[in-house]
Write a structure and sequence with these properties.
five-stranded parallel beta sheet; 5 strands; 18% strand; alpha/beta; 4 helices
Length: 142
Amino acid sequence: MYGVTNIFFDDVSAAAAQETYYQTLSAYVHQQAAGSLTMLNPGTVPDQSYINAGDILAIFEGDYSTYQSTTFPAWVKSYAASHFFHIIYNVTAGEMPGVLTKAEQNNAGYVYATDDILPNPYDTVPSYLPSEASTAHSNCST
């Protein structure tokens, strides 16, 4: 009815024993719409087998302070950055360049950063979004 093709599965288990369950869900989504994407969000690095369970894995979900000290296993760099997503909250506009640098260093092809905080860092858009959008637009060649 709405033309939804991509699915975000939240609160996904990171345990190896559950990987086939998520692989089955992703396969179902792909059968329903050619070219669809599935994103799995365990919020932490799951077992490496999960690389086959979904198209994109959210392997970090936490605040800026925790993100700065987080290290990721070496196997993450064995795959294309387009497989990995980092979600970081409590990020100021001034901290954004550091977040993006760290995400690139840690092979994350997708990043969601917001200045919002717990208990629900997803109930508003970042206050600096208009400024970032303007900067991005001014740097476009079209």
